Structure formats: C-alpha cells, structure tokens
Amino acid sequence: MIAKEVIIDKLKKSLNSDNYIIGSVIGSGISFLNAVNAGVDFTIVLSSGKYRQMGRGSLSSFLCYENSNDLVMNIGMREILPLSKDIPIFFGLNATDPTKDLYSYIKEIKEVGFSGINNFPSVGLIDGKFSEALEERGISYEREIEAIKIANFLNLFTIAFVFNEKQAIDMINAGADVICVHFGLTMGGYVGAKKAISLKKARNISQRIFNICDKVKTRKIIKMVYGGPIQSPIDLKYVYENNSCQGFIGGSVFDRIPTERGIFNTVKAFRICSDNMKKKIKTSDSVGDYIKEYIEKNYMKQIKMKDLASALNISNSYLSALFKKKFNWSFSEYLIRYRIEKFVELMRNEDMKFNEAAEIVGYDDYAQFSKQFKKYTKMSPKEYFKK
Question: Keyword annotations for this protein (predicted)?
Fold first, then answer.
C-alpha cells in the first residue's frame, strides 16, 4: 500500500510540472502491466474491467451475476497487488452491497494493500423508475458518499465518480481527493455503448462541476474525467481545451478497445497471409474488406499503404491493384473520401471548429485538409457548410 500523502504529493508534483494525470481501469494482470509500462499514474480495479475481459459489457457489473466486491478483491489479490511496486492500486467499491459492513470492509481493503477506493458500480449511472425504486429501499448514492467519508477517515486516497453538481459538492464535503466526472459508458468496439453525449456537452458538464471544485479554499481538488464519448487522444484534447480538467481515467479505451482492435487486425492479417501462402493468390474482396475495416477503425491515425502491404505479405503495387478493383478508387482516394465524410459528420453533430474536426479525422495541417476537401467537393469547408 502507498500512503495517501505520498500519492497526493506525487500527483501534485506532476500537475505543477504542467502534466496531465492519467489513470487506468483494469480487470487483469496483463492490462495492469501494460498500463504501468506506458506510464499511468494509478490504476483502479473494477468489476467492469473483468467483465470486459470476458467479452461482456461494463453494465454486467450492475447485475446479479456475482458479488462485485468479492470479484474485485479476488482480482486485486491474485493478479494485481502481487505485481504492484510503485503504482497506487485503488479498489472499485460497490458501496450499496448489503453483505458488507462499510467500515469493516474498507478497513480490510486497506489491510490487504489497496491504497484507496473508488465508488463503482455507482447508482449514479441508473435513472428512471428503477432509480426511484432503489432510492426508496435506501440503495442510493448516499451510501457511496458515506464510503468516501469512511475511506478518508481511514487515510485512504479516494476517487469519486460524480454525475452532477450536487454529487460533486457532497463528495467534496466527504473528503474526496479526486472528483472524476463520469460521462457514462464508453462508446466504440464490439461491446461498447452505441450512444453517448457529445464531446461539447461533456466539456460543458465537466467545467460546471470543476467550477465547484475550484471554489474550495481549504485544499486542492484534483479534477478528472472518464468514459462517454472519449475514444481517442484527440477526443480528450477537445475536452481539455477551455476546461480546467487535470486528467483522464481510461477504462475501455485502455483495456478493451485496444485488445479488440489488436486481436482482430492481427488475426485478420495472419488469416489473409496464410490463405495467400496456401493459394498463392489474393482476391480483391478479401483484401478490400480487410483494409476497409482497418480504415474505419484507424482513420484518425497515420495509415500507410506500405505497412498494410507488408502485413499482408504482398507488394504495394499488387495491393493497390486489388484495392482499386474492389472500390474503383485508389487507396489514398478512398482514405481521403472517408475522412471527409467523417469530418462532415463531426461538424453536423458536434458543433466544433473546422480545424478541430480536421485534426480528429487525421489532419494536423488544416490548410492541407482544406485543400483536399475542396479538391473532392469543389468547395472549401466554409463554403460547403454555408451552402
């Protein structure tokens, strides 16, 4: 266990050096090791992390499949804590668990080696009639506030997921060290949420909550965000801009989506390569479908045809010919058109600046993007949306 004072001192030094704080939600030892090697500041063990590793969605943590607290304790003690050295490990606590006495259990969490707690699964994610029924039975967010208060009393570091301004005030009063605005389940991938709030709305919601944190004079509250529409560094950059956010906690974006993409693309490449070695040919359909899907998942990054050709064990010219046969466009034409479509979609749905949307779809140089846009639409972005 790492002492609360040591964690606070380390995080504040990082912030004073103009760095953002990055935390990871994990559900397995391999995810933990990779997150640590990549330089995360802390990790949180959540039952949702394990369900994601099982190919299920994060909402599984809210159903009666097994006891969430027991699951986290088991993962922590078997897979995570034995690997931990200098990285704080926090326990995702289901505070409404009727089988646990909060004070005794949080004390046990500390004794086994966790450095703090986080309130998850949180009833703050539940709304409607089900939420009202839970409140009537005392299964409420108040229990999560109580858990943070107890952990603070036991000198554990605390990260509070909050969903509105009132909860932020209550968690600050309970002694939370981090106020993390939870935007809902993360979009993207095979088991991710299909809908989420817009990036603009996420930025505005978080700033209203962070304004409350900034009014606290007795101590510095660390302000972070989690989930929802944030799927890439560019999404996070948009939230950071004109916002006093100091860091990001990644769940699916760190341990589910990379795994999904990595396994899919690797196996697909081996599949095509293996078939090619056996048949000595490649069809335009198999290669085209693979690259089409690769572009859909990676269009915001730099994509080079030579890298794809190398992965498929064929020449650039052969890959180019197969791709053009499939789509009647060259690889570069297809990629540019796809990025332009995504740009238009972003501008219509997110109400952001032209250069921001261009950066999200893979263009750091807006002038270059504008030139490509005009080439394919016969209008500049400004003229296009004005019309």
Answer: Hydrolase, Membrane, Pyruvate, Transcription, Transcription regulation, Transmembrane, Transmembrane helix
